[in-house]
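Tutorial, part two.
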Amino acid sequence: MATRIEVIESPANQLIPVLPLREICLFPEASLAAIVSRPSAIHALDVAGRVGKRVLAVAQRDAGASANPRDLHDVGTIAEIVDSRSFPDGNYQIELDGIERARVVTLVGIDTLIAEIEPIPEDDPGDDWGSAVEALARYMHAHADLRRFLDQQRRSKEPMAWVNLACQHLPITASARQKLLEANARERCIKIGRGLDALLRKEQSG
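Running the prediction step on this input gives:
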C-alpha cells in the first residue's frame, strides 16, 4: 500500500517534497526548465502532484554526489510545478516557477526527501534595488539577446523581479548563485549590481 504524505501548510512551517538541483538554484519570481531522471526526484514530483504541485527546489553542494540530506544546501526556493511531461525513457521534463525562499529545518526520508521548511520573508531592499537595476540595464545594453530573454522570463512588475532574474540567469558560478539566494534583498541587490559592473568591465577589456 502506498504511503500517504501530506503537505502541511500553516503560517509557520510546512512539509514539502524536495527536488535536488545540480549546478543551479531557483530564485523567487524566476522560472527553471529541467530534465529529471533520478528515480527519487521523479517520486518527489509524483508526491508533489498529489499534494499541491509544489516542491522545495534546493541545490546540492556537490553536483556529482547523490542527493542526500548532508549534500543539500540549507536554503532553497518553494516552487510551483507549472508543467511536467514524461518521456518513453522514463525521464520527465518540468518547468518550475519560483515562489519564495525557504530554509530547511529538518529532512526526513531516504530515497525521496520530505523537508520541514520555514519560509523566509523577503525584506525591503530600500534604495539599493535601483543601483542593481541600473547595473543590469547597462549589462543588457551590451547583450541584446539577454534583454529579450529576460523580458520573456519576467513574471512580475516588481523591481526585485529583475534582480532575481539576473541572479538566476547571468553567467556566474553555482556557489556564487547560492550565496545570492541566501542573501537578503538588500545584500542581493548590492552584490549583483557590483558583480554585473565587474563582469561588464571584464568583457569590455577582453
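Helices lie at 39-50, 128-141, 144-153, 159-169, 174-182, 185-205. In part three we will examine how such features are distributed along the chain.
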